Give the backbone structure.
Amino acid sequence: QMQALKAVKFDQTKVQLKQWGSESSQTIDSNEVHFLGATFNDMVVQINQQFSLLTENDRIRRELLAHLSHDLRTPLATMQGYIELLAIKGDDLSCNEKQDYLATVQRNVSQLKRLIDQIFELAHLENGQVTINLETFPIGELLHDILAKFTLKAAEKNIALSLQPQPCQFIVYSDIAKLERIMTNLLENAIRHTDNGGNIVMTVTQLSTQVKVSVTDNGSGISKEDIAYIFDARYRASNAIEDNLQHAGLGLAISQKLSQVINSELMVKSELGNGSSFSLSIPMLPQQ
């Protein structure tokens, strides 16, 4: 934003003021005075706009920090509570109770680490600190591997996972690691918001110069009011406060940033109560 301030330039070459002290220095062309006044007025407007933008960005960062602070404190407080119980009443607790308490602590440690990792990942993306390795590869094998990672997690909720079409032989030009990160986030999000016995389908279709991968579920869906903010880091963090399950954290915000980095487009269609469909359009060939 500060660089934008430097872009405000005053073209002095257009104002031909004669040296003071000469015989003609007492007279300045009225057009030049008018131009000088208009230029400074434009400068004031642009500077005010830049400061307003800086103020808004600062407010957004403060909101995000407040939401993230809550999300960080919640698992910490839970861990502290159970650890104190183990320390104070450890001798009076049964073996099963101790195991349950330790399992709860371990889950909260994992949640805390996950959120911290996401914070650093989003910060690196925001600052442009990311390396891109674009290459041509068949996407079917990657998608099969991603689905395999979630087989057990989906089975816990009796959710059916599938990939269409079979076999999937489409070729794309992208960054394998970042594409895997995006699709992992989308599939994880779909499982989280799909009820027991639900269905999640990963569909691959070829467009003119792109391959579109869609992750469609029949879960809870997203309201019209919320869908505009679904990729907003502040929305996801604040939404997670009232989520009884392990929340998505910054996953969708990170996915949106990553899609931009690899020259792809991430979109969502959803209806409250009728599931969601997240689609990623990926180039098939290097962009000219």
Observations:
- The domain at 1-129 is CATH 1.10.287.130 (Helix Hairpins).
